[in-house]
Specification:
Helix content: 25-40%
Strand content: 25-35%
Number of strands: 17
CATH class of the largest domain: Mainly Beta
Order of helices and strands: HEEEHEEEHHHHHHHEEEEEEEEEEE
Length: 388
């Protein structure tokens, strides 16, 4: 039988326990479970429906780094899933590999990210590299898409969501000569950030959606900004002030078509599609070949660009005449080029000329290439300078 003093003590303990338990706040820290075998340690962490499993091969990195990677995951991954792809995997496996000499890579079908132990041990502050790779799992593009754009979006995500990029010595670069939008990674991310800020605040979401649903084309840039991708880059790099591109919406006519027709892989429509990776190709090139654009209205065109093909420089245009007309019968020569040379593949060259007359039809007559039996050209675009 308990004495009254023991009864009183028990009552006090029960009361304190009741008060403590009812004042305790909900635990928000993730549950962490560690398991070991002779070759590695595996750390699993679950929080609010998201799980990360980190396998530290051969105990190759310090557990402190593992804990930081887990913290990055819980901080950034749910946000990116919510913003871009709610169907992305909720379970991510991270493997610290002692044999991999790169930095890191993601395998979407496995929901796995591999990180080089050599890299992370030499760059212990760069745990936000995981943010970039996590974005690849969010992207989950079924056919990949242009590599430069895929990596650019991933680095843009790191820029926005990274926990402490500065700690890792990571930041987006300013534009410098020699860069190109197709460089990928941080260069492309800087460009994407600028386009988003300047033209369309939802651009990244739209591009991401298009890539995942296999609807992305180079026309996506025109639809969202009013400019082709190359023109956007020229504006971004300060080499253009956003001249009006009248090729957008124009009707194309050619004197000789590709054998597969105008909408073939190398048909004439490729020369105005805004995709610098495509081209118009004609076998048995005739010296009187011409291409013509009918614009939506009469316009004073005083600038145009040509982009060379991806191979065989002998197929490039060498001599040509640009003309304008109101009726497709009477033509006025506007620009004459002789002995032109494209030094690089997929090189864009710009041509300026004085004109005070507006025309609805513009024709470029290719009177000579570099002595090849085949002609090719990636892009031909017409512009009206802003001061006209």
């Amino acid at each position: 039988m308990r004495t009254p003093s023991f009864q009183l003590l028990g009552l006090i303990i029960m009361t304190l326990c009741f008060v403590s338990c009812n004042n305790k706040k909900e635990e928000l820290t993730p549950e962490v479970i560690e398991t070991e075998n002779k070759d590695n340690t595996k750390t699993s962490s679950e929080k609010e429906g998201y799980t990360i499993n980190v396998t530290n091969s051969n105990y190759s990195i310090n557990q402190v780094i593992v804990d930081e990677l887990i913290a990055v995951f819980h901080e950034v991954y749910p946000k990116m899933v919510l913003e871009y792809n709610s169907s992305a995997t909720k379970v991510v496996n991270v493997f610290i590999d002692t044999t991999y000499d790169g930095v890191a890579f993601a395998e979407i079908d496995k929901g796995q990210i591999t990180i080089s132990s050599k890299y992370i041990n030499a760059n212990t502050n760069d745990t936000d590299l995981l943010t970039h790779e996590l974005m690849h799992l969010v992207q989950a593009y079924p056919y990949g898409g242009p590599g430069w754009l895929v990596e650019g979006i991933a680095d843009y995500a790191r820029h926005i969501y990274g926990v402490d990029n500065a700690k890792g010595g990571w930041s987006l670069p300013a534009y410098t000569n020699g860069q190109n939008y197709s460089n990928g990674y941080r260069v492309t991310a800087s460009f994407l950030k600028w386009v988003k800020t300047t033209y369309d605040d939802t651009l990244i979401n739209k591009l991401d959606y298009n890539l995942r649903n296999e609807t992305y084309t180079y026309i996506s840039w025109v639809e969202n900004t009013g400019f082709t991708l190359p023109d956007l880059w020229l504006i971004y790099s300060g080499k253009s002030i956003g001249d009006k591109d009248w090729t957008i919406g124009s009707i194309l006519k050619v004197s000789k078509e590709n054998v597969g027709g105008h909408d073939a892989i190398e048909g004439s429509l490729k020369v105005i599609d805004g995709n610098f990776e495509s081209k118009f190709l004609v076998f048995d090139y005739p010296s009187d070949l011409w291409m013509q654009q009918e614009l939506s209205e009469k316009v004073i065109v005083n600038r145009y660009t040509l982009k060379s093909g991806n191979d065989v420089p002998e197929r490039d245009p060498k001599n040509w005449i640009l003309s304008g007309s109101d009726d497709e019968i009477n033509w006025t020569d506007l620009d004459v080029i002789v002995d032109e040379k494209f030094n690089d593949r997929n090189q864009t060259k710009e041509y300026l000329f004085d004109s005070s007359n507006a025309y609805i039809y513009y024709r470029i007559s290719i009177t000579a290439n570099n002595d090849a039996p085949i002609f090719q050209l990636s892009e031909w675009r017409l512009y009206q300078k802003n001061n006209q």
